[in-house]
Specification:
The complex is a heterodimer of chains A (152) and B (390).
Chain A: H1 3-15, E1 20-26, E2 29-34, H2 39-48, E3 56-64, E4 72-80, E5 85-93, E6 99-101, H3 110-121, E7 124-126
Parallel strand pairs in A: 2-5, 6-7
Antiparallel strand pairs in A: 1-2, 3-4, 4-5
Chain B: E1 6-11, E2 23-29, E3 32-39, H1 47-51, H2 56-64, H3 71-86, H4 92-121, H5 124-145, E4 154-155, E5 158-159, H6 165-189, H7 193-199, H8 207-212, H9 218-222, H10 229-232, H11 253-276, H12 302-313, E6 321-329, E7 332-340, E8 348-352, H13 354-359, H14 362-366, H15 374-381, H16 385-389
Antiparallel strand pairs in B: 1-2, 2-3, 4-5, 6-7, 7-8
Classes of the chains: A alpha/beta (152), B alpha+beta (390).
Chain lengths: 152, 390
């Protein structure tokens, strides 16, 4: 069993079936969508569980899906140096309240990634030590990577 | 002014040692650095958002402008991601040529880093030497791609064109000569007392801090972690070559220097092996819906003309899905997260730029050091603002 599939089982076992919203196995990449309230606990578990050890957070990014009930997706691309395995973790957020816990305590590298997702998509990371815009100036209005932001 | 008084010093965004438009706000106590807050975004062009408005083919020139010192690595990461969505495997000649180009790019990028980094610290002569060899790499790019910098050479499904005949001969001469040139650089720096004093024990980053901060590439390996995407998850036939992953022990500026120097030697070895075993055959897959027909067919063959027209006007549409592909770029893990909604334009492209992540570690590296060390530390991270700001 690949480590990604193992991660699905372990998360279900530890946090219950309802935490895992959806899973996908495509192009040899495993995706796990978890409920947003569980994201911090799941992140810590994925890093610390001896049989998984996703110690390296490659990237976090936002994706905008206007029209969906939960408009925003936050995507975490993880890597386990011990097992050489990749995993994609996701959480979905409604348009009205696009907020979820920050994972900076689990992977300090998340700091700038989360600032970028905040800057470009307006996603609020609660508990982030320094949630400011990062690429755009502080007085910039709007969230430019949202699909409804005009291109010119 | 009493020595213990705190001071906030602004460095950049227009400053020769920041390698572009980087601004650092440095908090000092006397001459000691307490904290650094980087301010980035001066070169933000919203490349990822622009990709959403262009066909996949039109995205390739945009990737050139990420890390503009390693355009071929960016090309490679992007086309590998799109090929993964399609489930394509490119012909072996294309795979080998991609390896050759990616390694030549690594050499070229490291040469620029070495020249500018050494110049920052005061060894101005280095710049003149490394730019001599760097010029040779750009001549080779020019020969193969018709451009020096923004090459846009790779295509989904293969390469834009095959290399000309004398390219192989000239590249071979270059990689044969390179190790001697690197020996020359080393005589100037490796045991130079001023160089050692300026770089040893400076900007130390421990392995655990490096991993926690997401640092990758030569910076991570200098801290002793032998993690390299070419070995960890080989792509484009990298598993067919013999090469070593150099690592450091102390994670300081000096180790980063040694690691990159050794990497250039290893890249030359890889290129030699790839040239020795360079397979014959096509440089792209045979799929008229993805790859342009040969130019000379356009005036002879109606069907080719139609395919060409359709590829330019509409492009191609990978199946709906998402994937994350990362490669070992000269600066570290370069990742492309590409989401397709089944249309001819990417729904979302996220570039995991190594410089963006590596720069985050600067405060950790510089805390407690003297302000005079800052320039050495900035240079040692090897950042390119083009990919930091995107």
């Amino acid at each position: 069993m690949s480590n990604g599939l193992l991660a699905i089982e372990k998360i279900k076992e530890r946090f219950g079936e309802s935490t895992v919203v959806e899973t996908k196995d495509a192009h040899n990449e495993i995706t796990i969508v978890v409920s947003r309230d569980a994201i911090l606990d799941v992140a810590g578990f994925l890093r610390d569980e001896p049989s998984l050890q996703y110690n390296f957070l490659s990237d976090i990014c936002g994706v905008d899906w206007p029209g969906r009930t939960e408009r925003f997706e936050v995507v975490y691309n993880l890597y386990s140096m011990k097992y050489g395995s990749r995993l994609r973790l996701k959480a979905r957020l409604p348009e009205k309240d696009p907020a979820l816990p920050s994972v900076t305590d689990v992977w300090p590298t998340a700091n700038w990634h989360e600032r970028e997702a905040f800057d470009l998509y307006g996603i609020e990371f609660t508990g982030h030590p320094d949630l400011r815009r990062i690429l755009n100036p502080d007085d910039f209005e709007g969230f430019p990577y949202r699909k409804d932001f005009p291109i010119r | 002014m009493p020595v213990s008084e705190r001071m906030v010093l602004n460095v950049g965004p227009q400053h020769p040692s920041t390698h572009g438009v980087l601004r650092l706000v440095v908090e000092l106590e006397g001459e000691t650095i307490l904290r650094i807050t980087p301010h980035i975004g001066y070169l933000h062009r919203a490349i990822e958002k622009l990709c959403e408005t262009k066909t996949y083919l039109q995205c390739i020139p945009l990737t050139d402008r990420l890390d503009y010192l390693a355009p071929l690595s960016n090309n490679l990461g992007f086309v590998l991601a799109v090929e993964k969505l399609f489930g394509l495997t490119v012909p072996r000649r294309a795979q080998y040529l991609r390896v050759i180009m990616a390694e030549l790019t690594r050499i070229s990028s490291h040469l620029i880093w070495l020249g500018t980094h050494a110049m920052d610290i005061g060894a101005i002569t280095m710049f003149l030497y490394t730019f001599r060899e760097r010029e040779a790499t750009y001549d080779l790019f020019d020969l193969a791609h018709g451009a020096r910098m923004n090459v846009s050479y790779m295509r989904v499904g293969g390469l834009a064109r095959d290399v000309p005949e004398d390219f192989v001969k000239r590249l071979r001469a270059f990689v044969r000569e390179l190790p001697e040139r690197i020996d020359e650089y080393e005589t100037l720096l490796t045991k130079n007392r001023i160089w050692l004093n300026r770089t040893r024990g400076v900007g130390v980053l421990s392995a655990s801090d490096a991993i926690a901060l997401g640092v990758s590439g030569p910076n991570l390996r200098a801290s002793g972690v032998a993690w390299d995407m070419r070995k960890a998850c080989p792509y484009s036939a990298y598993d067919e070559f013999n090469f070593n992953i150099p690592t450091g022990a102390n994670g300081d500026v000096y180790d980063r220097y040694l690691v990159r120097l050794t990497e250039m030697r290893e890249s030359a070895r890889i290129i030699e092996q790839a040239l020795d075993a360079l397979p014959e055959g096509p440089i792209a897959i045979e799929d008229a819906k993805i790859v342009f027909p040969p130019r000379d067919l356009l005036s002879k063959d109606m069907e080719s003309l139609i395919h060409h027209f359709m590829l330019v006007a509409e492009g191609f549409s990978p199946p709906e899905g998402e994937c994350y592909v990362s490669i070992e770029a000269p600066k570290g893990e370069l990742g492309f997260y590409v989401v397709s909604d089944g249309g001819p334009r990417p729904y979302r492209v996220k570039v995991r730029a190594p410089s963006f992540v590596n720069l985050q570690a600067i405060s950790k590296m510089a805390e407690g050091r003297l302000i005079a060390d800052l320039v050495a530390i900035i240079g040692s991270i090897d950042i390119v603002l083009g990919e930091i700001d995107r």
